[in-house]
Amino acid sequence: MPDKSNGWTVTVKLPKPSLDDNRADADRLRTALKSALNAEDLDIDIPLLKTLPSRLRKCSYQVRCLCFNDYGRWRLIGIKASADQTPFLGIAVDLGTTRVVLRLTDLDTGEKMAEQAFDNPQTAIGPDILERIHYADKAGGLEELNRLIIDGFQTHIEKLCGEAGGCAEDIYLMAVAGNTSMAHLFMGLAPGGIIREPYIPVVNRPDLIPAASLNLKLHQDAGIFVFPNVGSYFGGDLISGILYSGLSESEKISMLVDVGTNAEVVLGNRDWLVVCAGAAGPALEGGASKIGMTAGPGVIDQVMIDPETRRFNLHTIDDQPPKGICGSGMIDLVAQLFLAGLLDIRGRLVPEAAPERIYETNDERRLVVADEEASATGKALTLGQADFDSLIRSKAAMYTILETITSYVGITFNDLSRFYVAGTFGSFIRPRSAITIGMIPDLPEATFQSLGNSSLGGASRLLGARTAMDQIERIYQNITYIELNVNQAFMNRFSAAKFLPHTEAAHFPSVKSPHF
Asked: What fold, for 89-232?
């Protein structure tokens, strides 16, 4: 159960004014709240001050207040009569480039009430963030991109509240976690400096934003917290993920990996955090081939191959006929092909091992993953050698990023107590397959833990616990960012990692294949 004493709401009973106690209404309330929250000071903005006298008198000076700790500066956001049990509502947001997820939360209890996701409407301008940033440079472009995401929020917040029996005006607090560029577009800030040398954002750590200033129609006093980013390429979604994992609260050293177009990696504990980001490539998300796609119904997410008969057993999401393959399915497939002798250590298809499945066309070897009779499309699902080469490069980049960051701090993979994998990719990946192809270190499988949507999880945790704000501040202050693009050791290690599982077989002692 959520710890109500650690939430953002607090109930106070104030002494009524008298000739002996003639303090101002705001001072009377501020003193009580400072004591209840153990706060040094607390701000009350003008809109709340205008209604404060009538509210206090109407409820006989017994009130339930919603306060927020904005980087050490406490603010009063909402006030109700203590007898009024209608909840203060909050919205946790994972602001993704292609997908946005909203979670409605009762701020009194920290409990989840409803959840909804929608496609980011900015994809109509450009599917990737770079296109949107360039579009924002055009006259009216930034305003259009901002309007699209704000309108999308408003529409889906109202739907979400309708499901839960509330309304948007009941929302007092919103916690938004997204990458640096998406956060800028949400706030209506020009993102152009993020992609141009010397790569400077407008802001790294925004103050609490009045919802009205972003044209969001929530409660009139509602505030929006946007998770801080560490420069241009390490965003608030990763800060939120670190918070959710608990990595920064432990004495033991752990690693967190979030895979998207880039692989973003965090290494550390409660005393220090080192982070980096590198291009792992779309192959790890299933986006590198014609049949590659993100996880969804009918998408192959697991593969088993009998090493004796070379018979394929494909598992699809929701057990529907296969129509494509996602990143975790691709990793499974490569691992199984390698163990069954259908891929060699260079990641090349071996036709003689399965002539009924591997054929050559237009000077390229291709593998039939599912024939036309089994496929949902009525056409055979096939992958070419170029698809496997792409995944080999991606897995090599991933392992090299992990090897470089551990080397940077002078530890080995065996020093890790936990290895967290975040995002949709982390929800489906099977560690044994990723180890087999040399993508992640050869550690006991119990070391690995999937976090799911850690960006949304961290935003939800913030709404449910006031101590989370102190943890966010510590995370932000403890981070050291390292740049991989200028790291020569990275390029040397990358060349060595472009084999299955690696040129140094001793790095992966648990992997047994016909090639060894």
From this structure: Nucleotidyltransferase; domain 5 (3.30.420)
